[in-house]
Amino acid sequence: MKYFCFGFALVIVMGCGVLNAAAQSDPYPRMAPVDQYLMERNAEIQLARSAAPDSISRDATILVLGRQGYETAVQGKNGFVCMVGRGWGAAFDWAEFWNPKVRAADCLNPQAARSILPIFYLRARMVMAGHSKAEIVSAVKAAFENKQLPDLESGAMDYMMSKSAYLTDEGGHNIPHVMFYTRVKDGEDWGSGAAGSPVMSAPYWFFSSKEPSQMKGLPPILVVLVMVADWSDGTPAGRHT
Amino acid sequence: MRKNKVHAIAIKSFAVLVVLGLANLVLASLGLANQAMAQDAAKPYPNKVPTKMAAIDQYLMADRAAEIALARSAAPESIARDAEVQVLGRHGFETAVKGKNGFVCIVGRSWTSAADADFWDPKVRVPMCVNAAAARSYLVLFSKETEWGLAGRTPAQMTESIAAAIAKKELPAMESGAMCYMLSKLGYGGDSTPHWPPHLMFFYSDTDPAIWGANLPGSPVVGMSDPVQHLTQFVIPVQRWSDGTEIAKP
Question: Structure pTM?
Answer without folding.
Answer: 0.85
